[in-house]
TrEMBL record:
Protein name as annotated: Cadherin-related family member 4 isoform X12
Pfam families attached to this UniProt entry: Cadherin (PF00028)
Localization (cell): Membrane
Gene: CDHR4
Primary residence: membrane
């Protein structure tokens, strides 16, 4: 399993800026081939980027060339272990990988530091010890008895080690032994006289719970040489800067002798330094940052020089390496990006966001902060006080373009030499100094709108004619809202009984149905205004209202007169040569009782013009009737059209039906030779009113009778006898009970 430090790595390449950063990752030595060490994401639109592995220090084939794939518009690079990877923290615990990224014409390089960590659960023998040839140890025959010859380093703790191979004399001068710390001890008899002999020792390592492994140690005994290995120089102290990269040269030692080899004998293991076996060059093997590893400030090294064929001929040299602090790293801030949103009603002095910065080179040192605005360039709404970003001026989103997102950079400077800023990238490096170019770490503050004001409108009065058609536009309700975007208002009418509607978008008031001036002359409507899209929360609304009055402007004639009764049947005894008032047609408009002016005209049934109208009075005229005087009764069915005659338009009318039975009047004294009957002027005409009983069946009964199985017995009804205005029905063959001539 790859043990990664919790950091977010983003390499963003844009046209104007490039970032060159160093990354550090920890990898367990138990990781095998194919394991992913690190993933990088790049933005290189519109070019096709490349990612290269330039070199590895110390040289090894454990790392594959980086892969680069495209995913959702972003390029993702990966570093993985190769098929030959065999990580061993005891052998090499740090690697430096130099990477190069190319995006169009922009080229940047970065260093990936890989720290190999010991795996406490790794319980297997590794290295040359576990190989078939085993680990080879060369010792002089003059070695002191019962002295440690070699230390076997294995992962884990608490392992038990035993030599399982035979050590029988006379070949073995005495048994070798190994303790729990892995130290191999010389026989108690020593090795004097055993020169040129080779002793192979099989060693069993037991870790507990039935886990174990085997390895071999081969001890070669070398004869004593007459030559002498020595160091010509004396002990010395070496000072190096802490910004040396792993693999940098620290010093070089030289010893007199034949075919001399070098090794570090103290401290063992040496985590920070290594020495070349042939040329004696001492190099760094790990980063020397004093902030992360304070114990690296002073290291005392003991170097041993010996002849390759006679390792017992050796000499040792002690020297001290002092690591000097360098202002290498810029301040580090958490969070690295300030992004937040605040409402426009945030009071002045409110904390927008806080962050903390530290100097990796000098923890606890004083840092300086500067706030640089980018958009808008001269913004004064934010300020930086003691490393805290806060509101400096009133925020307002109620004007076009006023609700902005503020972008800025916070520049953090340390007190080292040269001063370092949090913004920047490494442009050129030497062993002691760095030059940095300024760059921007975004500060993004979005000011969000708040619905502060309720919509308002002014009460208005609209006038409309009584005969206005549906969908007629009466006027508009003009609502206003001070929040931006202005006048984002929806309109509605409280209640739904009035025949009016308001357009929800523009506030136009329309007529839905007919109006009646006589029923209602004015209406008062409450229009509700509700705003929308003026707050970060889409469910936040404010509302207001106003009253509009709609007055029906004109009284339009929309009701026809009605006559009571609508049908009259009268019997009149007429006098020869006289005019007689038959009846008065009584009509009115029930909905408009103030309307009294009507016009009357006979439109049907007035044969021989026997009848005339004097206003609403029906008059029978016999002045033009000469002898002989009719002996029989005669019936007239008169249709009288009654229309309103006022100034209102249109003029509506109705028709009244008057059936008049004219019966000649005869004197009681008997007839004379003159066929004309004379009626004294002093005599008063007699007006007889006869009310007829009629039957009006329900429509369903008509259908039943028409569909009866015995139509001959059914009462036949003639629809043609129906009164055209009032729907009165009379049976077929009906006759007046007193005057059979009237039908």
């Amino acid at each position: 399993m790859v043990l990664l430090r919790p950091l977010a790595l983003l390499l963003a390449l844009v046209v104007s800026e490039l970032y060159c950063l160093s990354w550090f990752i920890d990898v367990s030595e138990s990781q095998g081939p194919g394991a992913t060490l690190q993933s990088f994401s790049f933005n290189c639109s519109p070019y096709i980027p490349t990612l290269e592995l330039l070199h590895v220090q110390p040289p090894t084939t454990f790392f594959n060339p980086p892969s680069l794939t495209r995913w959702q518009g972003t390029y993702v690079g990966k570093m993985t272990l190769s098929s030959s990877a065999r990580l061993d923290a005891l052998t090499v615990n740090h690697y430096e990988l130099q990477l190069r990224f190319t995006c169009g014409n922009q080229v940047t390089e970065g260093r990936l530091s890989v720290n190999v960590q010991r795996d406490p659960n790794r319980d297997q023998c590794a290295g040359r010890f576990a190989s078939p040839a085993g680990e080879i140890i060369q010792v002089r025959e003059t070695v002191t008895p019962r002295t440690p010859l070699y230390t076997l380093l294995l992962p884990g703790q608490g392992a038990q080690m035993n030599i399982t191979s035979a050590q029988d004399p006379p070949y073995f001068p005495g048994p070798f032994s190994i303790d729990g710390q892995g130290q191999l001890w010389a026989p108690s008899q020593g090795l004097k006289g055993q020169a040129q002999k080779v002793f192979q020792l099989q060693i069993l390592v037991t870790f507990g719970q039935g886990r174990s492994c085997r390895g071999m140690l081969t001890v070669k005994v070398l004869p004593v040489s007459s030559s002498q290995v020595s160091f010509p120089q004396q002990a010395q102290n070496i000072t190096i800067p802490e910004n040396l990269v792993p693999g940098s040269k620290v010093a070089q030692v030289h010893a007199r002798g034949f075919d001399v080899r070098y090794e570090i004998v103290s401290p063992v293991p040496c985590r920070l330094f290594s020495i070349a076996r042939v040329d004696g060059v001492v190099r760094t093997t790990a980063p020397l940052e004093l902030a992360q590893a304070p114990d690296a400030a002073v290291t005392r090294l003991r170097v041993k020089a010996f002849e390759r064929l006679r390792p017992w001929d050796s000499a040792e040299l002690d020297f001290q390496v002092d690591v000097q602090s360098v202002n290498r790293w810029p301040p580090r801030c958490l969070p690295a990006l300030l992004a937040t949103q605040i409402p426009e009603t945030t009071p002045v002095g409110t904390f927008v966001n806080t962050f903390t910065c530290t100097d990796p080179d000098s923890p606890g040192s004083t840092l300086d902060y500067q706030l640089l605005f980018h958009s808008p360039a001269s913004a004064s709404s934010l300020c930086l006080r003691d490393g805290v970003l806060e509101v400096n001026d009133t925020l307002d989103c109620d004007a076009p373009g006023a609700c902005l997102q503020h972008t800025a950079s916070i520049l953090v400077l340390d007190s080292g030499q040269p001063p370092m800023t949090r913004q920047g990238r490494a442009n050129q490096a030497s062993s002691l100094t760095f030059k940095w170019l300024p760059a921007e770490v975004p500060v993004l503050v979005m000011v969000t709108p708040v619905n502060e004001f309720s919509p308002t409108c002014v009460s208005r009065t609209f006038r409309v004619r009584e005969d206005a058609r549906p969908h007629t536009l009466l006027g508009s309700v003009m609502g206003t809202d001070l929040d931006y975007p202005h006048d984002s208002i929806e309109y509605s009418i409280s209640g739904g009984s009035a025949p009016f509607a308001v357009d929800s978008l523009n506030g136009e008031v329309h007529l839905l149905g007919p109006l009646d001036y006589e029923m209602q002359k004015s209406y008062r409507l409450t229009v509700l205004l509700t705003d929308h899209s003026q707050d970060q929360d889409p469910t936040c609304h404010r509302s207001g209202s106003c009253t509009i009055t709609i007055e029906v402007e004109q009284d339009v004639n929309d009701h026809a007169p009605e006559c009571e009764p609508p049908f009259q049947e009268l019997t009149v005894y007429a006098h020869l040569g006289r005019s007689l008032e038959v009846t008065t047609v009584s009509c009115r408009v029930a909905q408009e009782p103030q309307r009294l002016a009507f016009s009357y005209r006979i439109v049907g049934g007035n044969s021989q013009s026997r009848f005339s109208l004097q206003g609403a009075v029906l008059v029978h005229n016999d002045l033009m009737l000469g002898p002989p005087w009719p002996e029989q009764s005669h019936t007239y069915e008169l249709l009288i059209r009654v229309a309103d005659a006022g100034p209102s338009t249109p003029h509506l009318s109705t028709t009244a039906t008057v059936i008049v039975h004219i019966v000649p009047w005869r004197a009681s004294t008997g007839a004379t030779s003159i066929h004309r009957t004379t009626v004294p002027s002093r005599m008063t005409p007699l007006l007889v009113t006869d009310t007829e009983v009629f039957w009006q069946p329900e429509p369903w009964l008509t259908q039943v009778l028409q569909t009866s199985s015995k139509p001959t017995q059914a009462l036949l009804l003639n629809r043609e006898l129906r009164d055209p205005l009032k729907g009165l029905w009379r049976p077929r063959g009906w006759r007046h009970p007193r005057h059979p001539a009237v039908s």
